[in-house]
Amino acid sequence: MTPLKAALFFILFGFTTISCDHVSGKGNVSDKPSSATQDKNGYPASFPIEDRKRFEEIIKNVMSKTDYLTPSIHSEFWRLMRKMGIETKEQESQYKKIMTAGLVYRKQMWKDAMASLEEGKPYKSSERKQYEKGLAQISGNSQLEQNDRMIDDIAAHKPISLQGNQVVATKEIIEKALADVGPTIDRVEVLFTP
Q: Closest by alpha carbon to 111, among 181, 183, 62?
């Protein structure tokens, strides 16, 4: 998995403000890195584990804490990006696009959850289907299938795991998840803009 795919996988399945067991971060990734240039997690072999952990920590904190992204954090993040070999405008743009796409997918998933809750049957929008075509190549189908099962449970008013608690998703819970995604997208866009 390349660092780009690792970051997207993390954003989609490894962390969420309202976390669900169905989005657990234990999916398949079909592409295997070259062991000569990348470590087993897809980071450049020369990228120290401490830097990788810090890179992931910054992304997680920017997504979850509204006041975390400061000029010094932004500079540190871009120092790590450069250390990973992200140098060109094309590479920068690719990272930004894929990271925000993951969040837009998450937003669409929660919109579909709301429609499913209101209709009492699972709903998958054409927008979500479109995103899933590309995401399946990155995360594998198992994670997307878990998302579908979560939507099934929401539609059936069955409990899902939210922040470690089994709850039946309500309109208020879904509205909060939707409200949280917009500002998160904004923060990630700033983070991924040099």
A: 181
**Mean pLDDT, residues 144-148 taken together:** 89
DSSP letter at 38?
B
Quick one: which of 57, 96, 155 has its CA closest to 147? Answer: 155
> What are the residue boundaries of the structural domains of the chain, listed by start?
3-20+27-191
In whole angstroms, how far apart are CA 113 and each of 93, 94, 173, 181? 30, 28, 10, 14
Q: What is the sign, positive or negative, of the torsion defined by CA atoms of 179, 108, 152, 122? A: positive
State percent of the chain over pLDDT 90.
Answer: 47
User: Could you tell me how far CA 21 lies from the centroid of its own chain?
Assistant: 14
d(CA 136, CA 114): 23
Q: 164 CB contacts (<8 Å, ≥6 apart)?
A: 19
35 CA to centre of own chain = 25
What is the mean predicted confidence (pLDDT) over 35-42?
64
- Token pair, residue 160, equals 């899902």
| Whole-angstrom distance, CA of residue 114 vs CA of residue 122 | 10
CA distances (Å), origin 156, targets 71, 113, 153, 175: 45, 11, 5, 18
